Amino acid sequence: MSPFEQFCIWFGQFVLTVLLADFLSGFFHWLEDAYGTPDTPVLGRIYVRPNIRHHHAPRSFLRHNWLQSSWDLLLVGIGIVLVAWWQDQLTWQVWLFVVLAANANQFHKWAHQTPAENGPVIAFLQELHLLQTPQQHAGHHTNPKNSCYCVLTNLTNPFLDGLRFWDGLEWLVWKLTGVRRRVDTSNPGNGPAPEWLSR
User: Fold this and answer.
1) N or C: which end of the chain has fewer CB within 10 A?
2) Each residue's pLDDT tens digit, 54-90
3) For residue 35, what are the contacts with CB-CB under 8 A and spacing of at least 6?
4) Which residues have CB under 8 Å from 183's CB, separation 6+?
5) In the chain, what are the helix, strand and coil shares in percent, each to the nearest 5?
6) CA angle 23-81-33, nearest 5°?
7) Which residues contact 98 (CB under 8 A, 6 or more apart)?
8) Which residues contact 119 (CB under 8 A, 6 or more apart)?
């Protein structure tokens, strides 16, 4: 195999790993947005309430440091690394996936910050559209707030949103379970904000 062929294989694996991490960041973001209630045991306080708060005040989560924002993703990442190591499958692809996935909330924060807040390196990568840009992520915070769920790159959302992937997934969930998407009170006409939000 020639060096060029080896590079093509490596590059293809690199891109696919990034896209997988991006897609899974979007999948779990969609789950947070669409299902669960603030009163769901344990998960309601850990995930649903912060998610609702984020839709009402998008920059509020910038107050949290990296560990406060990413402790759960870090634990999942450690679990993935340990399982891969135990299975003798701890490859560079696994490491890349874990690093990206464990930092999904940090990528999300960058999409809510200005270039000055992000610094020159992150701002440059956003300008190249290698990291998700604030402009693309703004689509997620535009009513009805049901698109642009993937937070790592600018590559995955146009494809999924073009297919109406998330709408189709919600239709499938409804058909299989009878469960509808949670009403987002940050959208006009969807009722008042939850009382606990003001506290």
Assistant:
1) C
2) 998 899 999 999 999 999 999 999 999 999 999 999 9
3) 173, 179, 181, 182
4) 190, 191
5) 65, 0, 35
6) 30
7) 77, 80, 81
8) none
> Would you say residue 35 has pLDDT above 80?
yes
**pLDDT at 189 > cutoff 90:** no
pLDDT for res 100:
98
Residues in the chain: 199
How many Å apart are CA 52 and CA 38, to the nearest integer? Answer: 8
Please give the single-letter amino acid code of residue 159. Answer: F
Global pTM reads 0.92
Residue whose tokens read 């919600």: 170
Domain ranges in the chain are 3-190
